[in-house]
Amino acid sequence: MESQQRVQFHIYDNVAIILILLAGIGIEVGRCEPNSESNNFNTNVSCSFKKHLLTSYFEKYECLLDSNFQDFITNELHFRMCEVLPDDLRLVIRPSVLQRHLIGEGSHRHLSSSIRFDIDPKAVSQLSIHYCEVIFVERLPSGVFADPFELQHLLQRGVFADVAVFGDTNLELPSFLSNRSAVEVHMKVDPNSLSTHKNGFEIKVDLPLHARYQRLDEGGYSTVEFGDPDMFMQCCLEGKSHNQSCYIPTSNNGTEPKIGAAVWRIPSGIKGHEGVVSVVTFISAFLSTLLIVLTSIFLSDIKRCKSSKQL
């Protein structure tokens, strides 16, 4: 009787193990099937995306210069273009900046940008796109910086797919001692939107920025102007070996509407007040030091008097 129970137990045990293995195989098949519902927007797990675009730039150049950056983009993207695109479908995505403005007051503000991507549905329909990211590069002017820790907090909240700051990240340096920096933002794009949205799609990027200490100026303000951002689209295609990513060319063909540049007037102090401020600061520091010394002497005398009375 006991032997029969043992045999039944082993049979049930083996059946349970087989069921667990079959369930695991079913889950893995669901992850790998191209038509699986769970695989519609998470195929980036198997897609090999390259490092940040600006990482490659700063491996070649020490500082951020507009001329160097334009040369780098022209040469770098040439080797990263999607080779599976036919020649007549090279320019399938046309980005245009709809609006750029600063939000807030003072030395801590947000740069808000609205970008529209006009697409060619016929061209995109010929591509087997698994996953795409819009790459938004903001080359910050001198005198403005982005806090990497603040951006990482936004990344943890899921605002961006990825974000990184490059260049001079020393937050304490004044504007006349610091170099320019840039922010690279990655945002997810649903592949279905590329083929179903005939009128294109829009994205919005809000970057928290901070002003550095400015040089003294006669007017009391320094003007900082933001140029146009750089936009790219990186996709994972079936035609690439090992599902590696590549860039889909973007171009506005000179049809992008001109919008007003975002301008930040940063308080810098009036240069004519430099002498008065220096004198007042010196006198205040001297009086504060003198007060501390006199207070220390007075307190030490009180302690001596108390100790002598106790004796």
From TrEMBL:
* Key words of the record: Endoplasmic reticulum, Glycoprotein, GPI-anchor biosynthesis, Membrane, Transmembrane, Transmembrane helix
Q: Name one Pfam family in it.
A: PIG-X
Q: Where in the cell is it found?
A: Endoplasmic reticulum membrane
How would you describe this protein's topology in the membrane? Single-pass membrane protein
Q: Which domain of life is it from?
A: Eukaryota
Where does the sequence pass through the membrane?
A: 275-299
- Keyword check for Plastid, yes or no: no
Record-level GO BP terms: GPI anchor biosynthetic process
One cellular component term from this protein's GO annotations in UniProt: endoplasmic reticulum membrane
For whether the record's keyword set contains Transmembrane helix, the answer is yes
Give the signal peptide range: none
Pathway membership, UniProt: Glycolipid biosynthesis; glycosylphosphatidylinositol-anchor biosynthesis
The UniProt family comment states: Belongs to the PIGX family.
Q: What is this protein called?
A: Phosphatidylinositol-glycan biosynthesis class X protein
